[in-house]
Structures are given as C-alpha cells and as structure tokens.
C-alpha cells in the first residue's frame, strides 16, 4: 500500500512538472552561484568550470537526479562577462533539460565590484506517461500519452563582492509560461556571506540564502563553513527540509572538489536515505594559492 501512495505521488508530481517549471536544487550552490544568479558570471576573474551531480532522496523511487555543467569567464573587455549552464534533471516520469546563457556587466570600485547580470535560455520538458506500470496492460489512459513542452526562460541578478564579503539578489526564472493553466510563481533569492579570520590557518565563513515565493512561507538556508588551509567542513540547515554536512578540498592551486550529504528532516525522510551531492570545480587562474582558496 505504501508503494501505491508513492507511485501516485510521483505521477501527480510528474504531471504537474510538465505544466510548471521545476527548479533544480543544490546544497553546494554557495560555491557556484552562477546556478542561482546570472550576475555571478566572471566573478572568479578567470575561466571557471564546474560540474555537479545530485542524487536526492536516495531509496525513494523516482526521486530527483540532477547533473549540471557550468562555465563563466570575463571577456577581453574586462567589464563584460559571459556564462553558460546546462542542466539535466530527472524526476519521476519527467525529464527536464535546460540551457541558459548569462551576461554580466562589471562595475569596479576601489575595494569592491558590482555585477549586473541577465540570462536567457530554453527549458525542454518531457513526461513519459507511457512508462507508467498499471494492472491493465495497454491501459489507454497512459498508452502513447508522452507529452513534450518547450518554453523560454529569462532572469536577472545583482551581485556585489569585496575580498571577504558578498551579497546578491536574483530572480533566475521570471519568464511567464502562458501555456500553463495557472502561471506559477517564480522565486526571488537573496544571498550573503562573509569570511572571518580566526587565525593564520583557520577561517570561518557564515552564509545565508533567503528564498521568497509570493503566497508561500519565506524559506531560509543557513550555512557555516570552517576552513583549515586547503580543507573545509561545513554545516547547513534548510528550513523544514534538511540538515546538510559539507566537505571540500583544494586538490591543487586550481582544482576544488566538494561533497554534501543531506539528512532529510521532512516526512519524505521516512522513505529515503538522504541526498548525496558531488562537485568538481576548476579555475584557469594560476595565481590562485591552495592555502588561500576561493571562498565564493
């Protein structure tokens, strides 16, 4: 009986995903904010490439599995910056592919930098209803009912940073999809973080993300990361959702690897064994020092 409820839930959710956008979620977003803010493009002052993979709610049949490739870099004109992200997202019966291009304009101040960014792309969603297993072979309700949907995307963002502080405001998905029965509300994201020197080798980085969706409760993601030279450990709490444990290491002067485990706190945790997420980031800048890694 429990499996019947789960399958029914996945079917309803997959069907709704075809009519509304599903935004992929990452725990380690603070190390690659291009995924949530187009103004982040070029902020590493070099070509920066990141791959991420997330298996959410392990053990839950049809749970989300998301992979993302992203890259961003300043252009020859030091004020112009470019980025790209490609996301493959599977959830239940739904497969979603996104490609987005980002453009950011840089304004330099004496000790800080302000980025203004926009993005645009396409969201391709298909729902494989013909894969539904029923007690009636060839059930005409599902047979041959695979559905496809293509919609444009657009968003904007603001990102401000100093050597130790950053703050950003973004709406990464603003384009209204008029093909749905009811236009879904899109999130607004506010992020901020700061790096504190505890000693010559230890640094502490608290950060936060607030997510606002009209007519929904305000969501918060609170993070605390401790660094010792090239190593980092972190703890993150996502309101009414999960407690996450993070680890990262600078493999050399340019390459960083990260891992996150989410302990699900919501009711869905009864059916899952948490979530796993891995990240690999390479920055093509040879002035980067492993003992002083990039924190954002």
Summarize the topology:
Blueprint: H1 2-19, E1 48-55, E2 65-74, E3 80-91, E4 94-108, E5 113-127, E6 147-161, E7 165-171, E8 188-194, E9 196-197, E10 202-212, E11 219-228, E12 231-238, E13 242-250, E14 255-264, E15 275-283
Antiparallel strand pairs: 1-2, 1-15, 2-3, 3-4, 4-5, 5-6, 6-7, 7-8, 8-10, 9-10, 10-11, 11-12, 12-13, 13-14, 14-15
Description:
The chain has 296 residues and is mostly beta strands. It has one helix at 2-19, and strands spanning 48-55, 65-74, 80-91, 94-108, 113-127, 147-161, 165-171, 188-194, 196-197, 202-212, 219-228, 231-238, 242-250, 255-264, 275-283. Strand 10 (202-212) and strand 11 form a beta hairpin. The longest helix is centred in the first third of the chain and has 18 residues, at 2-19.
Mean pLDDT: 82
Structure classification: mainly beta
Q: Please bin the fraction of helical residues.
A: under 10%
Number of strands: 15
Give the SSE string.
HEEEEEEEEEEEEEEE
Oligomer: single chain
Proportion of strand residues: over 45%
Strand order of the largest sheet: 1-2-3-4-5-6-7-8-10-11-12-13-14-15
Which regions contain 5 or more consecutive residues with pLDDT less than 50?
Answer: 1-21, 179-183
Biggest sheet character? 14 strands, antiparallel, barrel
Radius of gyration: 20 Å
Q: Report, as a whole number of angstroms, the end-to-end distance.
A: 46 Å
Shape: globular
- Please, how many helices? 1
